[in-house]
Amino acid sequence: MACMTVLDDLQAELAAATNRLLATTAALSDSDVTAPSLLPGWTRGHVLTHVARNADSLVNLVTWARTGLYTPQYPTPDAREAEIAEGAGRPIKDQHADIAGSASRLDTEMGAMPPEAWAARVEGTRPPEHPAWYLLVRRIREVEVHHVDLGAGYAWDDWPEVFVRRELHDAMAGWPHPESTVSEVRAGDRSWSGLGEGPVIEGTAPAVLAWVTGRLPDDGHGDAGLVTYGRLRLAEKPPAAPPWLTMPAPPGLPATPPEEYP
After folding, report:
1. pTM
2. Do residues 26 and 96 lie in contact, with contact meaning Cβ atoms separated by under 8 Å?
3. Cβ neighbours, 10 Å, residue 93
């Protein structure tokens, strides 16, 4: 079945992303964990704890899809924040074990999903509802983007091509037009126009995705009137991207993943 092939591919992609994150955490020291991450106000320990708790929260949504019984992703927003704060200061041994253990629990629960349950509708901390198969996409996003946020050697230009292509597709499908800061986005051989008012963003696909997600470092330099800004080609420093992930899933997702996604 084409659907199961896509699911198998997504599960393999998630496993590879998780293994890369675990390799990074295995090389960290206790002092590395308490050092600042690339996310303002968060240490690397905050990022690692968040990734682990996200895996457990997605177990809740997988359970909802499998049983049909409403199970919220997190009990409350405050509980989510409290868990992250509580776990942030742990030593790297505990952080690494938590990342590995939570990822394993999620993998086990996803492996127990009956094929038909992947079409069940679930919802995270905000709308819209989406089919359960998209939880795989959301988890890959969580691991890949926060791996970069650690600032520990894995950068946006290390993102796999398949991840970059899908994330750009989904980000543009849910583009917040009323808050757009640009008129057009060009990423490699793909482009999206009619986005709003402002300049054209153009560059390599990884650089454009880094800009979209707010992960592009401020390392611009001028060259004969052209600014190279994290491989974006512009006449001036680009504006900040509009809010990212205003929706955790693009609208109109089918009950089963398309044969080629995106």
Report:
1. 0.95
2. yes
3. 12
Q: Report the alpha-carbon distance of residue 133 to residue 254 in Å, rounded.
A: 10
Extract the residue ranges of the chain whose pLDDT is less than 50.
224
What pLDDT, in 10s, does the model give residues 9-26?
Answer: 999 999 999 999 999 999
Residues in Cβ contact with 237 at an 8 Å cutoff, skipping those fewer than 6 apart:
220, 227, 229
User: Dihedral of CA 66/71/77/78: which sign?
Assistant: negative
Asked whether residue 250 is domain-assigned, the answer is no
Bridge partner list, 200: 184
Q: Does 100 lie in the same domain as 26?
A: yes
Q: What is the CATH number of the domain that holds 8?
A: 1.20.120.450
Domain's final residue, options 94, 126, 154: 154
Q: Decide if 228 is inside a domain.
A: yes
Rounded Cα distance between 122 and 181, Å, is: 31
Sequence-distant (≥ 6) Cβ neighbours of residue 41 within 8 angstroms: none
DSSP H or E segment with residue 83: helix 77-87
Which domain, by its residues, includes 33? 2-154
Q: What CA–CA distance (Å, rounded) separates 96 from 100?
A: 6
Residue 246 resides in a domain: no
pLDDT per residue as tens digits for the range 121-180:
999 998 899 999 999 999 999 999 999 999 999 999 999 999 999 999 999 999 999 999
